[in-house]
């Protein structure tokens, strides 16, 4: 595809905007598109592909480009990541650009230090090595360089996976069943389904398979009282409500009003009547105290670095400093301790993150169990087996993109003694 000069200039401008890292990349890109309303759909797709390709491969591209200048980085992305030839680029290049591109292409075979070649910060590369060993961290970091597939979840109150698959395949979409979640559907690539009627009427929800599996670990029963302690926009809340078949009582807690506002239209589409969103001032809110010792199932989907989602959110590895790990761990421990007060004797607490770092996962659970002798660790694999899911990652659910094809997730089952 021949590239126009204005396309290259627009990509460079978008790179400059997103690389401020003052907002999540998708938010920054949306703001950029709003500021350029005349841009056509094809040009928007080109810019989005280029920006996210840069964010995935930023470190190696900067090293080989020997530059952080947005136009140079735009050229580097277009050549190495988007596969454009010098002939494609000729209409967009000035004489200096053409000389630079030839020099850049000559450097593409240059060896790079491992962390640079795998496009992660040095501190994260070191922590991954300690957690997963040499081969494991290379495989994980390599998996992060590819875009994530597009995962959907069937709403069992409105349809079946078989019906949804048949409808999507009939439309020519490459839809297949997810390998583990019995409610999941995976579509390769980035289909444009925002206005799809099955999403508009709540028969389908966008949800990564890993996120779905966390809900099956919680395993709420129909008559239970359940709390989703950090509900966010409610993806896991809606799954829990569906697993309860819209019976029992399900509280969706969050401390950010905007996130709960985003849940409301999704909740309306879902057809669920057992979900009760509640805004908290903090994790020690009076609403929490009123429910102390009364709840059968509590899910803590804790705020974390989000590194399990780097295929979707590659900017996180550049936006999160190493200091964030300790700061988040303190917050995770406080939230988990507060949520534990809700659990009644014989009840279950599930601690989950979309992180791959032990400091946010196993370390938090170990410290919690040491401080709360009334809790003991349960077995996530047993819960999955009860749901007919053939996946055993040990007592804790540990999902990794290079092993399981979904986002990285961690979940630990914590059972309170009767």
CATH topology annotation of the largest domain: Rossmann fold
Runs with pLDDT <50, length 5+? none
The CATH top-level class label of the largest domain: Alpha Beta
Mean pLDDT: 94
Secondary-structure-based class equals alpha/beta
Radius of gyration: 23 Å
Tally of distinct domains:
2
Query: Whole-Å distance between the termini?
Result: 66 Å
How much of the sequence lies in strands comes to 5-15%
Number of strands: 12
Which term fits the overall shape?
globular
Q: What percentage of residues falls in helices of 4 or more residues?
A: 40-55%
Instruction: Give the biggest sheet.
Output: 8 strands, mixed
Q: What is the number of helical segments per DSSP (H or I, 4+ residues)?
A: 19
- Second rung of CATH, namely the architecture of the largest domain: 3-Layer(aba) Sandwich
Describe the structure.
It is a single chain. The chain contains 19 helices and 12 strands. It folds into 2 domains: 108 residues, no CATH class; 208 residues, Vaccinia Virus protein VP39 (Rossmann fold). Helix 1 crosses helix 4, helix 4 crosses helix 6 and helix 16 crosses helix 17. Strand 2 and strand 3 form a beta hairpin. The chain is an alpha/beta fold.
Topology:
Layout: H1 5-18, H2 25-35, H3 41-65, H4 70-81, H5 86-89, H6 95-107, H7 114-117, H8 122-143, E1 150-154, H9 161-170, E2 175-177, E3 184-187, H10 197-200, E4 204-206, H11 209-218, E5 225-228, H12 235-243, E6 249-254, H13 257-270, E7 275-279, H14 286-290, E8 295-301, H15 316-319, H16 323-340, E9 343-353, H17 362-371, E10 375-377, H18 380-386, E11 397-399, H19 401-404, E12 409-416
Parallel strand pairs: 5-6, 5-8, 6-7, 8-9
Antiparallel strand pairs: 1-3, 1-4, 2-3, 9-12, 10-12, 11-12
Helix pairs in contact: 1-3, 1-4, 3-4, 4-6, 11-12, 11-18, 16-17
